[in-house]
Write a sequence for this structure.
């Protein structure tokens, strides 16, 4: 080598020095499970669709959403959004308005006429779905996507189950309900209405079905024996809401008492107000803290003039007068009678004390266990080993539309495994993206966008929708409040903060890669990642 | 942070970049085609703040001048770890000077470029705090006084780190170094001495003086860009935490720099012709304990023989900075002092 006097080595770049050999721990990119996704009963990839919505790519967001849940416009109205309760942003300012963005996407899809994905290649397997509520519709959708042939039967005149006959129109406008149901039926679902299934085994063998999904719901309002005079008007809340949905509301008078403390009780009371009741009083035997209804529904009901009598039970219904017994909570929090009574003027009494299932169609089914009015199922939603699956309100779980949608999806995959002769496999879940893993310094402060509510006076007298939607600008802002917990959103922090230029930015949406030849393992990238999508793992030495 | 409202996207303008901002609004460091002025393979310690600060500043200077930059580098960590013979990490024209004469060499380079008709090539001189506040101080003061067309950047890690962590005139009070033992009634470096070079630079009435940290990249890049848009003597003082000398975790480098600013111990501001023109206000104020307790050089202030009295004196310095530079915006004052 020809070098100047006293120089023995040619100059070169320091890239010859692979400082990666210093490392005892290496950073690796990970995807963690955001708490919202973890909490979603329908198994939505919420962080995933918010990511698309953040870019203003609403159709991609909607497509990612309906991968899991075909009813976003409905969910955006009736879901009690457990995702928002666990949202990590709660600890920064307020939860991301996931439900509002979901509704925005659902409404936009209806407006633009976006279609659900095409059915999968035909498998020639025939599946019977009994009950066209949220569980049955969700199952039908996922089964069609898997290529199975679906017959959907329901005893009612129209599809929708409790979404049509239980949830009042001011919470779920019927045009929205119809639009989302039609989109599923268009995928080639064979619908049979006004059809009551009396014996599931008979129905199955007669139709030659490979598997059955039972989503019959809990349609029977629970009754209790309350001494009442002949002229006293007593009705259960399920029947009441059903008749209102049928445009045939019963005459309840001006003073309506609703007995119970769940969402159905509040639906009934708010519906009674809209039908002209001057007094709509909810009687509940426990207190506010132990009430089953959601806080949102409670606040809205109070805003509409519904009143609540806490710690009371109905002991007698005399003509135009209800006798209440006062209760107190014992040490375990159970209500017990006090022996004190008071009276309440009333024209009618609505019982909202929970619902029972009618499972007589299973009387002749083998291997199926019915316990305490619910069908016992495995993780795959299969009841016994017989190819009979069940979900929704008919199985032991929280009775909400979102849980039912999740059941429908899980059952569809369970049925797919069953009819295709595969053994069911549980999906590996990512580690949870907890708040401690975030570096919240990097998130800008941004308060939540509130959805507009109809003015109180207007909503006491009509069935117009109470909660309005977000404008596009607000929905975009709200989506951008997402912290993207546990999932890289390409903020370039790791690329920028590495003292050794050992992060390679791949560009596009391909995120980044570590250059382990030079990464010294200092861990700054992990510490400065806003969303906790990098972790240090020990090197094997 | 006034651009946050317009560009609100999860991280506003706090993170390095993000996929939805237009390229003009992103930092130089977020660009795949950034210069990487100091390349991989350098021998800086894990989590070195100075290596990071040098790349931030020089990449920004390269962007601001379309790549027309010559760098002069005083002896110090930055020179030692980047150019062990026969390797170099520098991807820009780079000269190594003596420990004490980087400002004079830079003056000469600028003069030579001017004489050769290459006045569009800009000169950046860089040194650690030792080369700036101690050894190179006379030459630097002369460079300021003559208003030579040089941007001088001091990467301040508060001591002579590569020679074994000795005290410099930039070492803060109470900090332990190899020459300020943590023993006796006043352990660590003494109170009341040392040099505040940004203020000394301002006293020269030079066109531009600014401070920055490696924790706020947008701010640092903006200041380099501003400095390169001016001519004459300019001075940028960048706080660069040193995991080795400060006894901090290698992954805490940026976190600690942020705490230095948020506690008020390191005021971040800019000044033109001797007058402060803007300050970076504190966003989430913290007590100095949060900053000190992450560093072993202050370990003797905590634990079994804790010295809350000394911590209180350091807090008083922070409070004085906050008052002097108005670091707390009254309208947005946070209540995180209790945290």
């Amino acid at each position: 080598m020809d070098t100047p006097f006293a120089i023995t080595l040619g100059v070169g770049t320091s890239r010859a020095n692979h400082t990666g050999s210093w490392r005892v721990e290496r950073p690796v990119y990970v995807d963690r499970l955001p708490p919202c996704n973890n909490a979603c009963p329908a198994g939505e990839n919420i962080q995933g669709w918010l990511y698309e919505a953040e870019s203003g790519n609403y159709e991609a967001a909607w497509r990612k959403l309906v991968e899991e849940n075909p009813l976003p416009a409905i969910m955006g109205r009736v879901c009690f959004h457990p995702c928002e309760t666990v949202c990590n942003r709660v600890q920064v300012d307020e939860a991301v308005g996931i439900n509002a963005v979901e509704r925005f996407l659902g409404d936009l899809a209806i407006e633009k006429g976006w279609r659900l994905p095409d059915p999968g290649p035909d498998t020639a397997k025939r599946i019977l779905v009994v009950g066209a509520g949220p569980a049955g519709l969700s199952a039908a959708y996922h089964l069609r996507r898997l290529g199975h042939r679906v017959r959907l039967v329901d005893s009612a005149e129209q599809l929708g189950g409790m979404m049509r006959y239980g949830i009042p129109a001011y919470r779920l406008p019927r045009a929205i309900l119809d639009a989302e149901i039609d989109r599923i039926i268009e995928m080639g679902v064979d619908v049979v209405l006004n059809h009551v299934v009396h014996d599931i085994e008979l129905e199955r063998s007669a139709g030659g079905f490979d598997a059955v999904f039972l989503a019959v719901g809990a349609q029977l309002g629970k009754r209790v024996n309350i001494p009442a005079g002949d002229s006293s008007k007593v009705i259960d809340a399920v029947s009441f809401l059903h008749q209102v949905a049928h445009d045939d509301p019963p005459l309840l008078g001006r003073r309506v008492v609703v007995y119970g403390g769940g969402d159905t009780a509040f639906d009934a009371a708010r519906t009674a107000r809209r039908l002209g009741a001057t007094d709509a009083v909810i009687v509940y035997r426990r207190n506010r803290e132990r009430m089953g209804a959601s806080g949102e529904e409670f606040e809205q009901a109070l805003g509409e003039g519904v009143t609540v009598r806490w710690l009371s039970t109905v002991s007698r219904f005399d003509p135009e007068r209800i006798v209440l017994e006062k209760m107190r909570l014992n040490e375990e929090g159970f209500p017990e009678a006090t022996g004190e009574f008071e009276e309440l003027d009333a024209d009618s009494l609505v019982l909202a004390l929970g619902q029972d299932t009618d499972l007589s169609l299973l009387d002749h089914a083998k291997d199926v266990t019915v316990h305490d009015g619910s069908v016992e199922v495995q993780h795959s939603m299969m009841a016994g080993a017989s190819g009979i699956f069940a979900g929704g309100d008919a199985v032991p779980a929280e009775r909400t539309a979102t849980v039912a949608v999740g059941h429908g999806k899980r059952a569809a995959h369970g049925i797919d495994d069953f009819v295709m002769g595969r053994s069911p496999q549980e999906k590996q879940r990512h580690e949870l993206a907890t708040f401690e893993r975030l570096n919240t310094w990097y998130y800008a402060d941004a308060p939540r966008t509130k959805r507009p509510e109809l003015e109180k006076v207007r909503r006491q007298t009509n069935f117009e929708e109470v909660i309005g939607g977000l404008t596009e600008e607000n929905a975009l802002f709200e989506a951008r409040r997402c912290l993207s917990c546990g999932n890289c959103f390409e903020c370039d922090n790791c690329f920028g903060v590495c003292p050794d230029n050992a992060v390679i930015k791949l560009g596009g949406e391909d995120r980044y890669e570590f250059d382990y030849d030079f990464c010294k393992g200092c861990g700054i990238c992990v510490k400065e990642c806003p969303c906790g999508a990098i972790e240090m793992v020990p090197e094997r030495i | 942070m006034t651009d946050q409202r317009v560009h609100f996207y999860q991280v506003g303008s706090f993170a390095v970049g993000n996929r939805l901002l237009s390229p003009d609004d992103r930092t130089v460091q977020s660009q795949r085609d950034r210069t990487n002025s100091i390349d991989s393979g350098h021998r800086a310690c894990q989590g070195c703040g100075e290596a990071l600060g040098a790349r931030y500043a020089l990449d920004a200077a390269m962007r601001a001048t379309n790549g027309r930059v010559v760098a002069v580098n005083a002896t110090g960590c930055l020179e030692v770890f980047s150019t062990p013979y026969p390797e170099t990490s520098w991807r820009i024209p780079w000269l190594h000077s003596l420990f004490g004469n980087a400002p004079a060499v830079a003056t000469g380079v600028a003069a030579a470029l001017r004489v050769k008709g290459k006045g569009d090539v800009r000169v950046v001189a860089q040194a650690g705090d030792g080369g700036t506040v101690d050894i190179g101080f006379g030459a630097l003061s002369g460079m300021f006084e003559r208003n030579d067309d040089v941007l001088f950047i001091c990467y301040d890690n508060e001591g002579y780190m590569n020679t074994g962590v000795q005290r410099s005139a930039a070492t803060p009070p109470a900090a332990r170094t190899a020459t300020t033992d943590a023993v006796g009634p006043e352990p660590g470096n003494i109170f009341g001495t040392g040099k505040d070079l940004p203020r000394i630079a301002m006293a020269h009435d030079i066109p531009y003086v600014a401070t920055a940290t490696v924790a706020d990249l947008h701010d640092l890049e903006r200041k380099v860009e501003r400095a390169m848009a001016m001519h004459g003597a300019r001075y940028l003082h960048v706080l660069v935490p040193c995991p080795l000398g400060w006894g901090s975790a290698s992954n805490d480098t940026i976190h600690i720099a942020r705490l230095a600013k948020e506690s008020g111990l390191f005021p971040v501001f800019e000044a033109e012709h001797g007058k402060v023109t803007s300050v970076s206000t504190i966003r989430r104020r913290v007590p100095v304990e949060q900053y000190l307790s992450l560093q072993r050089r202050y370990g003797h202030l905590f634990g079994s023989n804790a010295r809350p009295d000394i911590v209180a004196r350091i807090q008083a310095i922070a409070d004085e900075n906050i008052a002097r530079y108005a670091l707390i915006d009254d309208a947005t004052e946070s209540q995180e002092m209790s945290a």
Observations:
- The radius of gyration of chain B is 19 Å.
- Residues 34-338 of chain B form a domain with the Rossmann fold fold (CATH 3.40.50.970).
- Chain B is about 30% helix and 15% strand.
- Chain B touches chain A through 50 residues (CB under 8 Å).
